[in-house]
Write a structure and sequence with these properties.
With about 325 residues, this protein is α/β, with parallel strands linked by helices. The chain folds into two domains: about 5-20 and about 30-110 and about 220-325, Periplasmic binding protein-like II (D-Maltodextrin-Binding Protein, domain 2, 3-Layer(aba) Sandwich), CATH 3.40.190; about 110-215, D-Maltodextrin-Binding Protein, domain 2 (3-Layer(aba) Sandwich), CATH 3.40.190.10. The chain is built from 16 helices and ten strands. It has a five-stranded mixed sheet with strand order 2-1-3-10-4, sandwiched between helices. A five-stranded mixed sheet has the order 7-6-8-5-9, sandwiched between helices. Helix 3 links the parallel strand 1 (about 30-35) and strand 2 (about 60-65). Helix 6 (about 140-155) packs across helix 10 (about 205-215), helix 9 crosses helix 14 (about 275-280) and helix 12 crosses helix 13. It is globular.
Length: about 325
Amino acid sequence: MRRREFLKTGVAGGVLASTPTFVRAQAAKGKVRLAYLQLGWAATEIIHKEDLLGKRGWQAEYSIVPGAPVPLLNQLGAKNVDAIDMSFALAAKAFEDGMPVKVTGVATAVLGAIVARKGAGLTKVEDLKGKKVAAVVGTSTFFDIRALTLKGYGFDIQKDTQIVTATAPPDMVTLLGKGDVDAIIAWQPITDAVVFRGEGVYLAKQIDLWRSAMGRTSGFPVHVCYLVHNDFLAKNTAIARDLNDAQKDAVDVWYNKPDRAMEIVAEVTKLPPDVIKTAHKETVRMLHGLSDEQVDTLIAQLKINKEFGFLKSDIWEQPDRVRKEFFHRA
């Protein structure tokens, strides 16, 4: 390296304090605002706390959003943030409603489950008929599980049970704990917290409902994906690959450094360590990238959501268009 180039890096001035600093200096890619759900459970917490986008040259701003997914989705639509983690079905709904967004990668397999109140006498999915079931009705977990029970068991959770509408996951926990409902339809880590405390038992996990309804014994349907606004993506195409690579590193931490992963998740979610440990063990699969196999599985998920009414657009019956218009592959 020539002396002038050496000085430009700032090394002579003592700037090179660590490798990440050096990476930022050499490959600055601008600012990106990544927001994610506090209870999203997608390893995005690790991207944030380890600044895995910063280590790839981005000036990254991270925001933790509590509550249900829709307000976070609206923040992306309003361009208040550039990228988010989001339930895949809600991402598709936003797209068909005209929101200019693209899926750039996957984050975690399905997290949902039906948890019955302990002592409610429920032993199988069909026992839910006529029972009080709490759910955040606008979430993809509810619509996915409704579609899978329709396909696999032939009854409609929304019509054949007494749905008690909750506004956020903690509301469902309260309803179940008070005995006001017989079951909840929720997702990790809330479901694990209820089971861990002895207030509920798993009636069915979403992954099992999927495999039963689809006649599959393997593969991982996606619960959470990464969604980027088209305007930001058009000017910053590198974010798609970098976000996937950051997720890959986060997944590596999740499986190979579990103590660090659980420490980060506990810091973000504020859940007790014992609950975090149980949820970490019960998680179906953390994911990354956007492979051909993953895209094929995602398209199958979209078809189910179209078949049972959550999605309306005819585009979901046109796989080539979906691949071109809904997904962005780095």
